[in-house]
Protein: 3-isopropylmalate dehydratase
Amino acid sequence: MAASLTRISCSSAFTFSASKASVFSPSLSPPSIKVPTFSPLTVKTLGSSFAPHVTCAISLTTHATLTPSSVPSDTSTTTFHGLCYVVGDNIDTDQIIPAEYLTLVPSNPAEYEKLGSYALVGLPSSYTTRFIEPNETKTKYSIVIGGANFGCGSSREHAPVALGAAGAKAVVAESYARIFFRNSVATGEVYPLESEVRICEECKTGDVVTIQLRESRLINHSTCKEYKLNPIGDAGPVIEAGGIFAYARKTGMIPSESN
Structure:
């Protein structure tokens, strides 16, 4: 599919938010959650600055080198900024978290952290840059960019949990295996965002990117290109709450733990 994009002004202003805490809860999708409705792909030319939620301005030059620490953070989770890690098509759950690590119990904090240290360890050796460096438990890549059918394979909910435990905040892919998408929403670990454009062919590992959930767009600051994403829709508030059970408690669907 041909890429649809527009170059953005390299003096554009953008915002960055603090990362959302990863919260694990069992995989369950109640009838009250509707499948997000995605709007058609559109292209929008940016002005000199992003009007919504502007808190800081950073001048960019073409192919500028930025680091996540160079951008101030706020307490909103509607925007994510950081380095991206790019993978291809048909990344299955064995590649995301091999079966040998499924004995780890995510509800145990120590095992949750250990599970994250094995995220994407099953990728083939052709991925010379690893998602997590040796002897580290967290990744420096907060956004994963993939191709078609991301998260295919088994129904293990450990897959999005491992990514979230490693420090990833969102996955942007051309399409998802349905069970991975549902598990991502149910656990509240990562935002599974879709684009009709093969962004995985436009970006490379280490590019500095920003995802703006409210505007449904991804901006690659390393190439000065912008991409329209499909809206997350009704799944957004569930992920924001920390998963399906946290959302149910927050909205009064089930009693809170304090009751």
